[in-house]
Amino acid sequence: MATAIWVLNDQLHQAQAAxxxxxxxxxxxxxxxxxxxxxQRPHLQKQILFWSAQRHFAAELKQAGWQVDQLEAPTHAExxxxxLKQHEISRLLVMAPPDRPIRQAIDRLAQHxxxxxxxxxxxxxxxxxxxxxxxxWAGSKxxxxxxxxxxxxxxxxxxxxxxxxxxxGQWNFDQDNRKPPKKGLEGPAPLWFEPDxxxxxxxxxxxxxxxxxxxxxxxxxxxxxxxxxxxxxxxEHFIATRLAGFGPYQDAMVSGQPTLWxxxxxxxxxxxxxxxxxxxxxxxxxxxxxxxxxASLEGVIRQLLGWREFTHGLYHHFGxxxxxxxxxEAVVPxxxxxxxLGGSGMxxxxxxLSELNERGYAHHIQRLMVxxxxxxxxxxxxxxxxxxxxxxxxDAHHWVMQTNVLGMGLWADAGRLGSKPYAASGRYIxxxxxxxxxxxxxxxxxxxxEACPFNVLYWDFMARHQERFRSHPRMALMIRQLDRIDAxxxxxxxxxxxxxxxxxxxxx
Length: 508
Ligand code: SF4
Hints:
Elements (H helix, E strand, L loop, with lengths): L1 E5 L10 H4 L7 E7 L9 H20 L4 E6 L2 H11 L2 E7 L4 H11 L7 E5 L8 H8 L7 H11 L4 E2 L2 E2 L30 H17 L14 H14 L24 H6 L4 H14 L4 H25 L17 H4 L7 H13 L4 H15 L3 H11 L5 H12 L16 H7 L20 H12 L1 H4 L6 H8 L3 H12 L10
Parallel strand pairs: 1-2, 1-4, 2-3, 4-5
Antiparallel strand pairs: 6-7
Helix pairs in contact: 2-7, 5-11, 6-11, 10-11, 11-16, 14-18, 15-16, 18-21
């Protein structure tokens, strides 16, 4: 009778808690590629990254002396149960995944009538705050605000601190980081990689399955890093070429410049190829050695030590019912252009979808101010849209997207995460991007066939929800602006909105 460790595909580092509990020779390791995950129709770039990174990690473990079995089967049950029996495994250790549905699926698997061994969960060590520590911080606070949680993290881990005070005399330099793109703005070239033999084999496997499962996105060119070494190279490339410029243009959107100064490390951290505290320490050291402007350094550290940990903590703190939230009763089905990753006729949306199609990636402002902004105002169903996000993005996991899309982007949680809905008209996109110049819609119009749909839907959204937001401290101003629109113009706006067929609820 023997012990084995099942490594899940977002736990790809040797210090993860289940591997750290044993040494090579003390337990077999198993990794699984189950075709069943393709039923969720993940973007090809995402699935190539996940399976290739897992295969590379299995090879690294073998080199380190572990006995590793790589199983491929239609389902996890068909892969694991015969293997457990064959090797007479009596105890299977799994590091608890942050994603609730994955943990529940594994628990269900272990209740299968043929399941032959004991399943033992090991606490996850991939986050700086455990779920329990986060809940202790949250305590009975009425409002959970990222800013205060982030300050606790800065103090607790002694990051960018001078004694008990923040470096530079303030905690947050966000106001310095919202520059619109200037003419001809170009970011540094990103670091991409050529697929090796392992990745090529995964690409070929998924290409043969793509039609059957209707997998979205391009499979090639595939340029993401798939090993810890490559992930570390991306981090170092970011530090050398982008960190200093990260701050000012982090909210800018430029046609033909999908990555600008963004770090591109989120897929690697979320798979376990990079460790968050080590990344933060490296950024802090490099920032000081290279005299990086504090606004840029603090901006990127806030994403990791603040937002990433905060959303992970909230995901567990809010619990399972959070996923079912739909405060605005949004029931509009997802439009075809989301499934096809293009064809909306709006330049901003089509640019973002085309970049997503190519790499499985869009940066955070494209996600928030183009995609979820449109979905919020059009009333797309939050559960369907959150699942779409989870399938499309290379850095997407259940714990990431519930809070970021359903909460922050769509306000389906009635403000438990973000105090006000992130609804914005075309004016914002026109100011912060280069998209509107080539668009067939006019960002200055709000009714009629040429009107920018973001403008039309912005006022339609305010009109639909005016009673809810009239006394909201951060929305009341917008509702007062709505009140100043005369009745005939408002009717023209709402009639234009009714003409957008992708923003209509299903017929009763
Ligand atoms: Fe997008 Fe409106 Fe600008 Fe067109 S005009 S790119 S739809 S914001």
